[in-house]
Amino acid sequence: MTASAVPLPNGMPDQGAEGHRFMGITLYDHLVMWDLSKSDGPAALRPGLATAWRVDPNDPKRWIFTIREGVKFHDGKLLTAEDVVFSYDRAFKPDAPHYDARGSSQVRGRMPTNLRWYAEGERTFILETRTVDSLVPYGATWTGITHQGAWEAAGRDNDRLLQRPVGTGPFKLESFNIRERAVLVRNPDYWETARIPKVGRVTLLPLPEPNTRVAALRSNQVDFVEAPPPDAIPSLRQAGFNITSNQYGHNWTWHLSLIEGSPWRDVRVRRAANLGVDRAGMKDMLGGMMLEGGGLVPVGGPWNPVRSPRLNYDPNAARALMAQAGFTPRNPMRTKVAISASGSGQMQPLAMNEALQQSLKEIGIDITFEVFDWNTLLTTWREGARSPNIRGCTAINVTYTALDPYSAMIRLLKSDLVSPVANNWGYLNDPAYDALIQQVYETFDIPAQDAILKQLHDKVLDEALFLFVAHDLNPRAMTRNVRGFVQAQSWFQDLTPISLG
Fold first, then answer.
1. Which residues have C-beta within 8 Å of that of residue 33, sequence separation ≥ 6?
2. Where are the beta strands (DSSP E) in 257-364?
3. pLDDT tens digits, 239-257
4. Strand ranges inside 48-162, DSSP E
5. Chain-centre distance of CA 383, in angstroms?
6. What is its main location (predicted)?
7. C-alpha 250, offset from chain centre
8. In the prediction, which pLDDT does 253 show?
9. Burial 230-266 (b: 16+ CB within 10 A, else e)
10. Strand partners, 290
11. 290 & 339 share domain
12. 477 and 304 in contact (C-beta within 8 Å)?
């Protein structure tokens, strides 16, 4: 893994979406899951522990989930709707005795409209929202389902539960050492027969330094590495290792502060910065393993169908805008940016940010970096641009999965989704954005919703609210013995089909 520690096995793991990939969807299942079985199209939602979900026709703020029958937890308990209630209490109810504050910090921002939830019998889970929210099924992909008996068996202690987690997922946890490794073993009784893992054991190793991961692969310490450095990929191919990659919803940006005193409040500076990024040059630097940043989602879908001319590389136009704002390469705008040296989806953050630093210097923006540990950077992102922990930075380089309307746009733009609710890090507060987002929430027809989302994304591009740089192709390298892996067009991946020849 690219993470610097093993993700927490609590059903709501840390270490970003990489934590969810390796410790969330392996040990646990969710009401709604992603179909990760194919590589030739975007991953779609599919039934998980809920076989169906619908909005109450008499109340659009009331969601009804039908719970799957016959599912067993790792300890043999049969799943009921009460287990879902318990799990949602752990995530979203601070006064519950079993509330998990660390886990909640990872998922509460995914479902900010939650109001209350309860069971109606063993097979029906009800979720009520504060406002009409058409995006609830996407949020339901994040909270892993466990049960109260597991928490009781761990002494009613969420820390002890980390050593004895109980989910319904295709893998069970055999051992866990947060700084060294975790060992997952096959769940032979998994409810979805086709996804019973082909391998008996998976060992997760946190290796944040890219060249260390490659060395581990070459020395047969591991069979599979995330994000090999681009300059190593040709030699790995030549040595017989398999390299896989695929496009998917992933966004590599700088999030820009809009609070008082931030230089990014000037739209001319934001537009200039976007015109000053040599995305094609960065793609060459990464050996082709990126898509040139096209916005909050890659170019080509209904929300962002064509590439915006606002994202061309035009340093002369950028310098003209900076001059209008009162800055030149000799009299530059100076500011600090928070970055990490590694982490989930950060690609090659040091090399990429140094390339940006050089490009922006040529148009009159002088950047210095504050380097954070990945998990600390994520915490700082959740705390917002006003946090004293941001160390004077006016931008932050946090990458994230952008697979649905909420994760891709809404949580970053809605005025009431600032810290501690969600991820409006820069404190954007604009009624025009809020009005479009409200339309999205209230629109259940997908084509109509897509049209509103396109309006929203066009506005973001026009006002250059972020520094748009790249979309990851998520390269992976593995030995020729690794068979059956299907790289889905998703940040998440299914380990269950993998076998070792």
1. 25, 45, 46, 47, 48, 141
2. 290-292, 333-340
3. 999 999 998 888 999 999 9
4. 50-56, 59-67, 114-119, 124-129
5. 17
6. periplasm
7. 8
8. 96
9. bebbeebeeeebbebbbbbbbbbbbbbbbeeebbbeb
10. 472
11. yes
12. no
**Which pLDDT score is estimated for 345?**
77
> Where do runs of H (alpha helix) occur along 219-327?
233-238, 267-275, 279-285, 315-324
Q: Do 198 and 271 sit in the same domain of this protein?
A: no
Count other C-beta atoms under 10 Å from residue 317's C-beta.
15
CA–CA gap between residue 146 and residue 167 (Å, rounded):
5
Average pLDDT over residues 248-272: 96
Residues 265-269: contacts with CB within 8 Å, 24+ apart? 266/325, 267/463, 267/464, 268/321, 268/322, 268/324, 268/325, 269/321, 269/322, 269/325, 269/327, 269/333, 269/365
Tell which residue, 183, 148, 144, has the closest CA to residue 163. 183
Decide: residue 72, CB within 10 A, 0-12 exposed, 13-18 middle, 19+ buried.
middle
Do residues 11 and 144 touch, judged by C-beta distance below 8 A? yes
Task: Give the C-alpha separation, 51 to 62, whole Å.
Answer: 17
For residue 103, report the phi and psi dihedrals to the nearest 5 degrees. -65, -40
pTM assigned to the model: 0.90
The reply to whether 62 and 179 lie within a common domain is yes
- Quote the CA–CA distance of 171 and 74 in Å, as a whole number: 9
Strand 395-396 and strand 333-340: the pairing is parallel
Length, in residues, of the chain: 501
Q: How far apart are CA 79 and CA 66, in angstroms?
A: 12
Kind and range of the H or E run holding 380: helix 374-383
Domain check: are 398 and 264 in the same one? Answer: yes
CA–CA separation, 143 vs 141, rounded Å? 6
Pairwise CA distance, residues 184 & 167, whole Å: 12
What burial class does residue 339 get, using C-beta atoms within 10 Å of its C-beta: 0-12 exposed, 13-18 middle, 19+ buried?
A: buried
User: Among 139, 142, 136, which Cα is nearest to 61's?
Assistant: 136
Residue 142 maps to which CATH number?
3.40.190.10
Q: Are residues 329 and 414 in the same domain?
A: yes
Which domain does 72 fall in, by range?
16-207+478-500
Burial 28-44 (b: 16+ CB within 10 A, else e): bbbbbbbebeebeeebe
Q: Is the pLDDT of residue 434 over 80?
A: yes
**453 and 361 share one domain:** yes
Encoded amino acid at 182, one letter: A
Does residue 306 share a domain with residue 425?
Answer: yes
CA distance to 62, 115, 185, 233, 324, per residue, from 59 (Å): 6, 14, 43, 54, 52
The pair of three-digit structure tokens given for residue 461, joined into one six-digit string: 């591009």
Task: Single out the residue of 284, 304, 296 nearest to residue 250, CA to CA.
Answer: 296
Q: What residues contact residue 458 under an 8 Å CB cut-off, 6+ apart?
A: none
